[in-house]
Structure formats: structure tokens, C-alpha cells
Amino acid sequence: MAKDIYVDFHSKGGDIKGDSRDTKHKDTVEVYSWSHVVKQPKSATASTAGGHTSERCEHGEMIFTKDIDGSTPKLLQACSAGTIINDVSIYFYRAHGGKNSVGSPSGTQSRHQYLRVDLKNVIVASVQTTVSAEGIPSEVFSLKYSAVKWTYDELNIAGEKSGKVNIQGAWDLAKNVPNFS
Description:
It is a single chain. This protein has 181 residues and is mostly beta strands. The protein has one domain: Pnp Oxidase, Chain A (Roll). 6% of the residues lie in helices and 46% in strands. It is built from 1 helix and 13 strands. The strands form 3 sheets. Strands 1, 2, 3, 8, 9, 10, 11, 12 and 13 form a 9-stranded antiparallel sheet that branches. A two-stranded antiparallel sheet has the order 4-7. This is Type VI secretion system tube protein Hcp.
């Protein structure tokens, strides 16, 4: 199953633009992998009730892999300067059926968005470029943020939204509350 992921930097002035020619996500950064860890540390000792106690959650950096493209110089610059980017959205699409095109430049595949992740007060935490002996030069970059919101739409076997749509979760790291403000 093909998956498409687009990162859209909504900074003032729109400095970080990728090479995407997708009709829905023109000039966004196309990535082919994403990794993110949210961890709930627990105390080393049990509570008086016998269970572990929870602590403040830890949100790791969001890590993306992509081909080197037009966004590379601006990602490196934003990382070097510690630039705060107001808003970033990440769109996840799943391919299905091959019946029609929804934003696909090739027009051969139907896709449906099933996950959107919105971030606030984002910094580019790292950028690592790699040129291997084989393949296209690639890059891994990571983002840190102060607030995150996840929105999921369940898709049925035909790739259409089913009964569970707009399921949301959020976390504000600065306030340590389930909010996206």
C-alpha cells in the first residue's frame, strides 16, 4: 500500500518550501518516512497502591526522511538560526483502489487522507544529509514543538471515510495539558 506524507511549513513569509507538485500540496516537503515517540516515564519505585506512578510525558523529536530538494538550504538555515516556525502541518495519505486521482500528479491512483498532525512553535532540531554509493542523496531532519494535535479519519476497505471520523487528541507541552492552544 503506497503512502504519501507531506510536510507544510506555515511560517510567516513561507520560507521553507519543498518540491512537491501534488495538486493539493504544491510546494510542500514530500517525505517517505516519519518516526515519533511519545513516552510516559514511570518512577523506579511503586506507589503505596503497588503500581507505578506516571510523570510528565516526554515528546521526542519528529524525524523525517526525504530526498534532498529545494527545502534543504532553508531547513539547514532554520536549524542553524534556531528559527521558530509558527505552524507546521503533516498530511498522511493512503492509496487505494486505483480508480481515480485525488491530487496525484500521475493520475493513476486514488488517495485518501487518514491522518493530519498539526504542530505549533516548531524548531528544526537537526538536519543530516547523506550521499550514499547508491541511490539519490537523502536527508533526515527532525522537528521539536510546543503543542501537537493529531486528527485521524478511519477509512473502510474502499478507502472512504467510515463511522470514525475526526478523532482528535492533543497535547500542549508548555502547559502539560491535553490542549492545542
